[in-house]
Description:
By secondary structure, the protein is of the alpha+beta class. Helices cover about 35% and strands about 30% of the residues.
Amino acid sequence: MSVTVRVPAKVNVQLAVGPARPDGFHDLANVFLxxxxxxxxxxxxxxxxxxTCEGPDADQVPLDRTNLAARAAELLAARHGIEPRVHLHIxxxxxxAGGMAGGSADGAGALLACDALWGTGATRDELLEICxxxxxxxxxxxxxxxxxxxxxxxxxxxxxTGGTFHWVFAVAEGGLSxxxxxxxxxxxxxxATAPTASPALLEALRTGDTxxxxxxxxxxxxxxxxxxxxxxxxxxxxGIRAGAxxxxxxxxxxxxxxxxxxxxxxxxxxxxLIASGTCRTARAxxxxxxxxxVLTP
Length: 297
């Protein structure tokens, strides 16, 4: 017997960042949208905990206990007094180290898969508690859809959306360290204030107004990401030249996200980005997408 869970990537349509807290984290107003790029995590009985991975950039995914999927299995098992004897296989399609929460998605996927495999019967609240312990983005990977994350991003409020939004994601060569980006944010930012969600952006989501959403996209980490990786400015410019309504660094980067009018525009912009030579590849996707879901055989 095995259980497979499909779990989505995310894009931050707004990432407002406050000053560093005493614990080293930052208060956030983080507006998440789940997008239709997915990893699949399969849990199967085994003699001990092990992790395997296939797919694009699978060689960059840690297979030891630092992998969030492995940590999710350990935390769930510890809560229920069992040994984490499970083989977790990750089929990657979310860009690795790209600011799209691929590692967080795998943690949420493994948690849901192990809960089903072991029959632990964890409540939604218990699963979300474990997700928050795993990392700031993991709870949203479980929930999906659209949500406002506050605190360090782990406290979620579901948001209404009025339609489908079309995106192109330009995948950069190599990754960017999230702690390094936050460190650069602290270095170059002297006026960080308490973060709040943009009313205009929330209204654009609610009404499904793509043009209004394009005008409201904001990421306080973007200057830090561009400081550490100046070439991302060329990618952003290439996407706009190709007809995207707006472009933004996704989370801490280095993936860049382009909001486009429709599926045809997404195809055009993706092809132009690949041809520009400013990114490794480009992927079209839509949002919102559902959160982690067990796939029925």
